[in-house]
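Researcher: Before we compare anything, I want clean individual predictions. No alignment, no superposition, just each chain on its own. First chain goes here; please echo the sequence and then give the structure tokens.
Model: Echoing the first chain and its structure:
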Amino acid sequence: MNPLRIAFSTLAFPEATLANATSLARSWGYTGIELRLIDGQVIESSLSAAERARVKQTVAGSGLDIAIVDSMIQLATENPEPELRRFLELANEWESPLIRIYGGQLFESRRANRVEIELAAAVLERVIPTAEQLGVAMAIETHDAFSASASVAELLGLVDSRWVGALWDTHHPYRVGESPVEVRKNLGSRVLHVQVKDARRSAEHKSGWQYVLLGDGEVPVREIIGLLAAGDYNGYISVEWEKYWHPEIQEPEIALPQHLKLLQEWLQEIAREQS
């Protein structure tokens, strides 16, 4: 069984400074951080040199590893390459091995979709030399039009490089009807990062889903963890508690310790089952 490390996303801390967020998470037992917000603000590649240095120093002082830097880049948009290169440079400066990117929008027509996927693949091919030079890989999230792992896998099939892979968000493939086994088969060894969250169907919520504490929903997170532990995945499991987007959910002081405790319990149980 592969030892899986546990990180948290700073999306959980919309009202905290980075220093406070890292200090709290480290005290609870987290070992990695997924940088999405800095002092409650979405990361931008235009951060000044002084701000970049402060972020690096703050995280290093906490003893946390930067697992991934999250961008809002969509490949299927006009000229995403300059921003991709800027985020790769930012991640390199922060000693992160990954950046998160999105595939972009797709269309109802299968033929139009294929054109968009081919254009996205061409963007990645042009940026791969920069990624390799900087030592930072690009992880395409199962999200929005690419929520299905099959869509991400189709894109990855056109880009044969270890500098491009997938970010498996546990909720979205399940939401669109894919089982953990299907996702694992589709993405295989190309999974570079995993975000965990739990949810249950709810007619009262606009999206049709309500985010809940780990284990209180229907997303088969434990099964997913078991598949990862039994395979060749050696990246982080990152708790993505989306307090920034959903202010009604529990405070991070409740949710993050609860997620970590249950994940650790599951990992111990899975280790015994697989030994």
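Researcher: Okay. Second chain, same rules.
Model: Second chain and its structure:
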Amino acid sequence: MRALAEYVMRGRRQAVMVAVLATGSVFFAWVGAAVVALVTLRKGTSQGCYVLFWSLLPAVVIVWTGDTGPLTTLLGVTLAAAVLRASHSWPWSLSMAVVSGLLTGMALMLFGDQYLQAILGLVKDFFAQLESQNEGLQLGSPTAAQLAGMLGWGNALSVTLCLLLARWWQAVLYNPGGFKIEFQNVRLPPALTVMLLVLALGLTSLGVDYWFWALILALPFMFAGFGLVHALVAKKNLGTQWLVMFYIGWLLLDPLKVLLLLSVVVDSWVDLRARVASRQR
């Protein structure tokens, strides 16, 4: 991956070629989005938008085949990378991923009815096949609003992961060790925490159809929580096995997800890293 980043940074022609080819391949569209983000982070928004422009050509063609993912990820990650370059703030950059996910869901609800209905038809056929093979099994099909929320959540997650990859590339090439320090110090400011929580609760109150929309707003808490765990493990000089155990537990245990979210909320007002460090003195 480092060799690819080095090649991209050789010049604009190389960056455009990699971004266009990766985006056009569909399966590696995330690489194209990360390349656009890397150029934006390192060389500025104007250079990033130049690479974005050429990358949009295959992305638009893919939209006509029925996949909006590459297009929305490219647009979202460019916005997030521009904010990160200008503000040097991970919380607000993660918020741009949330904005991208919400806008993607809203755009699908407003303009993508045929797209959503086509996916829902496939889902219903698949569920019907499962029910016929398993007597007594009843699976409720998602609604269009739920599906739009799922796709919006997927977009926000893709934007975040592509931005993380681009920042890691930048650190490996120009600031070794910098990404680790940045990631471990991601901490949501109180105002942003309150805003995200209020919006998430508001969406949840609208009913089951909007639960996935609320999960989009939880993404900054998730990644800030991961950074917090990495920081605490490092400060306590615990081994990598603790991180492995944490991630396995996080994937399997819902209470751990809730505990992580609450820890991030508390960390917004009480700097848990500083408290741990002061106790070790």
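Researcher: What stands out in the second chain?
Model: The chain has 14 helices and no strands. Additionally, The mean pLDDT is 91.
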